[in-house]
Design goal:
The chain has 366 residues and is an all-alpha fold. The protein folds into two domains: 5-33 and 246-358, STAT, domain 1 (Methane Monooxygenase Hydroxylase, Chain G, domain 1, Up-down Bundle), CATH 1.20.58; 45-205, no CATH class. Helix content is 58%, strand content 0%. The protein has eleven helices and no strands.
């Protein structure tokens, strides 16, 4: 491949554009996540959480006038299992979990008189949007109108949510029959085929013939859930302090932009590492461009490795957030490997040029 004028021009000027592009991304990934910011936020729950089972029991009594047994909780389908296929009834409930619980608990009557609300931190494809379109108005927005699905509920906040929802139901719809059990209430729901007894009478979901082999993302999510289990064994839920300011949406967008820039950079590096420049000025310009791209890639990889550590340390408790973080971890590791491969190719080309230059110098000796 001959070094065309277009490639030569690119070799001289590309590093300015690439440096600007990567600096923006590096700044994004180098920002520290405020893992313990809840302690400094004035709008923070009291240090007294409520468990998943406790919230379901309280919601059932407050809205249905009926107590809930563990068997009903496991068999009704209201509670989702974690990525490790366990229900963890004694773990603290988050705002995201609570919204899904209330939505499923009140179907189908809530559809006639919903209490919706929109929040700024939820993507269009979030599984929470359908639940919040029914019961979102019962949740007080956080700063900047965020929902904060990983924020743990305190007993005080849970009481306030149930009071708002109970008042709304009393004012706008017929009350539930106090004699109806949790499973009986669900059986009248149009979506009952997706809810009724799809989990066994136990704490682990039952494998079916239609289940596929767990993906790498599934395994990462399961490992992260196991970390929560170990944390639960050695600390109180009040000490978990999930980072409610951790913006998964911004991180996803940042990684998407990074991958787009990597696509262009890999193509440019391939052109420069496979071309055959004329000796002299063209060859010198090529080495300068490759050296600059190498430094940019090296700095970006270093920052991404630091961001990988930050992401691994981030604490999320909502089931959907755990799975999304697992997917981002997998992508981040792959992007780091892409940069490593790119560095190897550039290093190989630069070493080849140095060797050829040394050979030419020896041949020119008298």
């Amino acid at each position: 491949m001959i070094l065309t004028p277009e490639i030569r021009k690119y070799a001289i000027t590309c590093h300015f554009y690439r440096q600007l592009c990567f600096l923006i991304l590096v700044i994004l990934f180098s920002l520290p996540f405020p893992f313990s910011s809840m302690g400094s936020n004035s709008d923070v729950s009291e240090p007294s959480t409520i468990t998943r089972m406790g919230f379901l029991e309280q919601a059932g009594m407050s809205l249905l006038g009926k107590s809930t047994s563990e068997i009903e909780a496991l068999s009704s389908g209201i509670l989702e299992p974690y990525p490790d296929s366990r229900f963890h009834l004694d773990w603290p409930v988050s705002r995201g979990m609570a919204a899904k619980i209330l939505n499923r608990l009140l179907l189908p009557s809530i559809r006639s008189h919903p209490l919706p609300s929109e929040f700024s931190d939820l993507k269009e494809n979030s599984s929470l949007r359908s639940a919040l379109s029914m019961v979102g108005g019962a949740f007080k927005p956080l700063l900047k109108n965020r929902f904060g699905p990983d924020r743990l509920l305190s007993k005080k906040e849970a009481n306030a949510i149930l009071q708002r929802l109970s008042k709304h139901l009393r004012e706008n719809s017929e009350p539930f029959s106090s004699g109806a059990s949790l499973t009986e209430s669900l059986s009248s729901s149009p979506s009952s085929e997706n809810l009724e007894r799809r989990f066994p009478m136990g704490f682990i979901t039952h494998p079916t013939q239609t289940e596929t082999t767990p993906t790498e993302t599934d395994l990462i999510a399961s490992s992260d859930t196991s970390r929560l289990g170990r944390l639960n064994s050695f600390s109180f839920p009040e000490q978990w302090s999930p980072d409610e300011n951790f913006d998964i949406n911004s991180l996803e967008n940042g990684i998407l932009e990074l991958e787009s820039s990597l696509d262009s950079l890999e193509l440019s590096a391939h052109e420069l590492t496979t071309c055959t420049p004329d000796p002299g000025e063209e060859e010198s310009g090529l080495r300068t461009a490759l050296t600059t791209i190498r430094q940019i890639s090296f700095d970006a990889r270093k920052k991404l490795k630091y961001s990988e550590i930050q992401l691994n340390a981030a604490l999320v408790v909502d089931e959907e957030s755990i799975r999304r973080c697992a997917s981002l971890k997998k992508r981040l590791v792959f992007d780091i490997s892409r940069l490593s491969t790119l560095l190897e190719k550039i290093d190989s080309r630069l070493k080849k040029d140095l060797k050829e230059t040394a050979n030419d110098a020896r041949l020119g000796e008298p």
